[in-house]
Design a protein that fits this description.
The complex is a heterodimer of chains A (431) and B (334). Chain A is of the alpha/beta class and 431 residues long. Helices cover 35% and strands 7% of the residues of chain A. Chain A folds into 2 domains: 330 residues, Rossmann fold (3-Layer(aba) Sandwich); 31 residues. In chain A, helix 1 crosses helix 2 and helix 2 runs parallel beside helix 8. The radius of gyration of chain B is 19 Å and the shape is globular. Classes of the chains: A alpha/beta (431), B alpha/beta (334). At the A-B interface, helix 5 and helix 6 of A face helix 3, helix 4 and helix 5 of B. The structure holds thiamine diphosphate (TPP).
Chain lengths: 431, 334
């Protein structure tokens, strides 16, 4: 074989007098059995981030993509320019919705372990990301979520039983048992049908927002993806479209630091922040403490006001931590330090808001414990209700022939034939 | 009208009738498209309804899915069908399945226009016929016109349709029919009967084939440019073949195909796309399933070869008159 460098070296030896090149393969700070370490994470003070005007030019706020917007300080006080100064009812609603999401996750995780369904994904530790955003948006804004934003549906008061019917793929499932559990669709909740293909929702959200703008509507779109998913081409296509047409869209990156077993370094986190992706596109980029629901709310509100006043899109990185496994099919102790989640310095979003509410004198431990008990009963009752419609694999599903519906608006001849053939075969088999 | 003008007219008519129809794609706005299919539309309907896009096919189709979900009827152009692959995921996993996965809550009523097929010395990346990839996927329709009249009527039907539709435009016959003889002077659509295109609204329903030539001796199933090449071969052979222009592959007009083959007892399938797992294989299987006892000879296929599209050897690759004639002679011998 000839020397590929063309400089006269022999095979296996570079011909030039240069040091050998090295490939950098990222490695997370800690693996199982090693001690986790977040000391390199320099957390800015809660009141450190300035709050630019909603209409400011992206290049005037580049620093926002590298800092961290925070509102709740270490003592649970709301401080700084981003404090949304919410009334007590809103704070308590946030607290309740986050706790409800956690109770829902716990119940459905257990249902999967009990064999009632095939799959589940928790959002433990990330509840503030979806709920803070949902409460900052208008009810008729359209959300294009990924699979870990069930909090949006709960914040929009979507019926628990309806969500559970979907998880059980039973006869009450509005999606006719066609989607993997948690891949909800709820048009009336402004919740777009979830795809299992990562990040496809990103350009779709931008398209929806462009359509809204082109029609002179007032509604905006928001979308979410994980930090690992920012590596997908769709993410970059979406950023280009959003920037080019100044689409009224909010693009959220949920940086929970793990994409199944791959740490965020495999999506580029060693080199820059995810909010900084915005800089290259000339989009406003904000980096937010994702475990601080007041910060998430304030940043989303800022971005929504910006979009609504035709000042353009915003990319928000929510810096958080995925406390639990990726899904019911995952065992995180196989690839990361066991103590990592407990050491995550931005804490737990529910505990932080609870401390804030107690500090304001509008909440206390007893009421919190009573609420947790009430919510556990609420989801238990809802699950019993949903189970009356069937659980996965126990026969209470939509009729077999429904499999052929909705492929097209009208069923074409070849599908009618296949449908009939299936029914005939089942009949012949005596079923 | 030639085929480009007919396609332009279809979009014009639909944009006039329905304010939710929007046209988008690389170079389609100010310039009117590299083949000029969208010429004049932006000036007439404004930049909110006809606009240029960044060069990201995955973005174009993804954005069109979102626009469709909002309530618009996007008509995105993919500049060449060869560039549809970057958008494959958005087409196959998203547009084609949105209605199904949301049980009808959301739909993606888009019509993706794209010039396709060879015969213009376009090399590997301006010549391919990817229809078989999409007919294999559930939930998306595939339409291919062969005349200006059909192009307009079918495109109008596709835009009105609430399902995502791929509209493949045989670019070899944009400006005139092509008889397969690349070395004879190009003809034009002017004066051709199928170029009598009304300026106003009319539609040709999707899923209805056209008998391009009626006959008793043999059925030839074909679409796009191949309809004209086959017509020419049949005329020069003086054989009484029935030529069925499929017009749409999904939905497929199996009734017309079945009736024709049962009548003639012989079947030839012709397409430009590569052979293995091509749409011809599906046609062959269906004819075999439905017409086996009526067949007097094995079904034959003339297709592109299973190689990438070659540049200098384009005319050897192209399923031209020589290969079609040989196949017909073989079928008729039995
Ligand atoms: C296109 C595509 N590739 C791969 C997968 C498999 N997959 C599902 S989730 C996941 C990790 C995603 O991580 P991230 O985006 O960080 O989101 P997170 O799960 O942390 O919320 C992968 C690789 C997929 N669903 N879609």
């Amino acid at each position: 074989m000839s020397d590929p460098t063309g400089s006269g070296g022999i095979e296996g030896q570079p011909g030039r007098n240069l040091p050998p090149l090295r490939l950098h393969v990222p490695e997370p700070p800690a693996r199982p059995g090693e001690s986790a370490d977040f000391t390199h994470f320099d957390i800015p003070a809660a009141d450190a981030a300035p709050r630019p005007d909603e209409a400011a030019q992206p290049d005037a706020m580049r620093d926002m993509a590298y800092g961290l917007i925070r509102v709740l300080d270490e003592d649970g006080a709301a401080v700084g320019a981003w404090n949304p100064k919410l009334p007590p009812e809103t704070l308590l609603r946030m607290l309740r919705t986050m706790a409800l999401t956690r109770a829902f996750d716990a119940r459905m995780f257990r249902a999967q372990r009990q064999g009632k369904t095939s799959f589940y994904m928790k959002s433990t530790g990330e509840e503030a990301v979806s709920i803070g955003a949902a409460l900052a948006l208008s009810r008729d804004d359209m959300c294009f979520p990924s699979y870990r934003q069930q909090g949006i549906l709960l914040a929009r008061d979507w019926p628990l039983v309806d969500m559970m019917n979907q998880i059980y793929s039973n006869k009450g499932d509005r999606l006719k048992g066609r989607q993997l559990p948690i891949m909800y669709s709820a048009r009336d909740a402004g919740f777009f049908s979830i795809s299992g293909n990562l990040t496809t929702q990103y350009p779709q959200a931008v398209g929806w927002a462009m359509a809204s703008a082109a029609r002179g509507d007032t509604r905006i779109a928001a979308t979410w993806c994980g930090e690992g998913s920012t590596a997908e081409g769709d993410f970059h296509s979406a950023c280009t479209f959003a920037s080019v047409y100044r689409a009224p869209v909010i693009m959220n990156v949920v940086n929970n630091q793990w994409a199944i077993s791959s740490f965020s370094g495999f999506a580029g986190a060693e080199s820059t922040t995810f909010a900084a992706r915005a800089v290259g596109y000339g989009i406003a980029g904000l980096r937010v403490d994702g475990n601080d629901i007041l910060a998430v709310y304030a940043a989303t509100r800022w971005a929504a006001d910006r979009a609504r006043s035709n000042a353009g899109p915003t990319l928000i990185e929510h810096f958080t931590y995925r406390v639990e496994g990726h899904s019911t099919s995952d065992d995180p102790t196989a690839y990361r330090s066991a103590e990592e989640s407990s050491l995550w310095p931005l804490g737990d979003p529910i505990a932080r808001l609870k401390a804030h509410c107690i500090g304001l004198g509008i909440w206390d431990e007893d009421r919190h414990a009573a609420m947790d008990k009430e919510l556990a009963e609420l989801v238990r009752d809802a699950a019993r209700e949903a189970e009356k419609n069937g659980i996965l694999g126990h026969g209470l599903h939509h009729p077999m022939e429904s499999m052929f519906e909705d492929v097209f608006e009208e069923m074409p001849r070849h599908l009618k034939e296949q449908q009939q053939q299936m029914l005939d075969e089942w009949k012949a088999a005596g079923l | 009208m030639n085929m480009i003008q007919a396609i332009n007219s279809a979009m014009d008519v639909m944009m006039e009738r329905d304010p939710t129809v929007v046209v988008m794609g690389e170079d389609v706005g100010f310039f009117g498209g590299v083949f000029r299919a969208t010429a004049g539309l932006q000036a007439k309907y404004g930049k909110n309804r006809v606009f240029d896009t960044p060069i990201t096919e995955c973005g174009i189709i993804g954005v069109a899915v979102g626009m469709g979900a909002y309530g618009l009827r996007p008509v995105p152009e993919i500049q060449f069908a060869d560039y549809i692959y970057p958008a494959l995921d958005q087409l196959v996993s998203e547009a084609a399945r949105l209605r199904y996965r949301s049980a009808g809550e959301f739909i993606a009523p888009m019509t993706v226009r794209s010039p396709f097929g060879g015969g213009i010395f376009g090399g590997q990346t301006h010549s391919q016929s990817p229809e078989g990839i999409f007919t294999h996927c559930s939930g998306i329709k595939t339409v291919i016109p062969s005349t200006p009249y059909d192009a307009k009527g079918l495109l109008i039907a596709a835009i009105e349709d609430n399902d995502p539709t791929l509209f493949f435009e045989p670019k070899r016959i944009y400006n005139g029919p092509f008889d397969g003889h690349y070395d004879t002077p190009a003809t034009s659509w002017a004066g051709h009967a199928d170029a009598q295109v009304p300026t106003g609204y009319y539609r040709i329903p999707l899923g209805k084939a056209r008998i391009a030539r009626a006959g008793d001796a043999l059925t030839v199933l074909c679409y796009g440019t191949m309809v004209h090449v086959v017509e020419n071969v049949v005329a020069t052979l003086g054989i009484d073949a029935e030529i069925v222009d499929l017009r749409s592959l999904v939905p497929l007009d199996i009734d017309t195909i079945e009736a024709s083959v049962k009548k003639t007892g012989r079947c030839l399938i012709v397409h430009e796309a590569t052979r293995t797992s091509g749409f011809g294989a599906e046609l062959l299987a269906q004819v075999q399933e439905r017409c086996f006892y009526h067949l007097e000879a094995p079904i034959e296929r003339v297709t592109g070869f299973d190689t990438p599209y070659p540049h200098s050897l384009e005319w050897a690759y192209f399923p031209g008159p020589v290969r079609i004639r040989e196949a017909i002679n073989k079928i008729m011998k039995d």
